[in-house]
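Milestone M4 deliverable, item 7.
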Amino acid sequence: MSTYHHHFTHDGLRLAYLDHPPRAVPGAVAHGTPILLIHGFASNIQVNWVNTLWVRNLVDAGYRVLAIENRGHGASDKAYAPADYAVAKMAADARALLDHLAIPRAILMGYSMGARIATRLAVDSPARVPALVLGGLGIHLVEGVGIPLGIAEALEAKDASTITEPIAQMFRQFAEANRQDLRALAACIRGSRDLIAREEISALSVPTLIAVGTDDDIAGAPEPLAALMPDAEVFTIQGRDHNRAVGDRTHRAAVLAFLARVCGV
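Output delivered:
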């Protein structure tokens, strides 16, 4: 569970979030540009963004860092119907956080499921998004499904030792290590598998960075996704799988360089 949270209410759910001001660093400009971070499935703010040094690096670079703890995760309220986890609903949660904080525009950065949510928000509200960073999700944003549906059954298994599929084992262990509500996560994996239409992606002109590990077996290749988008580029995270790519130092450096270039801060 995140130890850095506030709460707001949207769609009948009390949702946790982080709001960290830029840090005064000698020689750097605390410009305060807001960036909203959206974590992946079975993760939370602490694991996805704080422990991996993203928050520290971004605030040191002058950003106002926001992060939402998705419904069903961490310190946010839980729901148990798959329909409650439609990607459009979780994107609306993220947009509601910006409204709650009276922030008209914010850079969006999501990892894995969070990248799907961030893209949905950017497609629905492009005027609010000056730049988009997608981590751990490539062409599976528009084709395929990325995280296998069988993970839901693995999360619901009474005896974890009966799970034999490696990816399912990994997600069950990850969820338990993060003290997550396994029943809520099972509903989430069933309800959050919405694909973004190719036509919507092709019309999304927001400058976008797509970062995927070379050993990631879940995301799908980043290059075909970038080819669909008017203003997208790819960064490959060398030697990293889906989990270890998140906090890779070359990943963080590439994102900071991209944002400095496209946003001018």
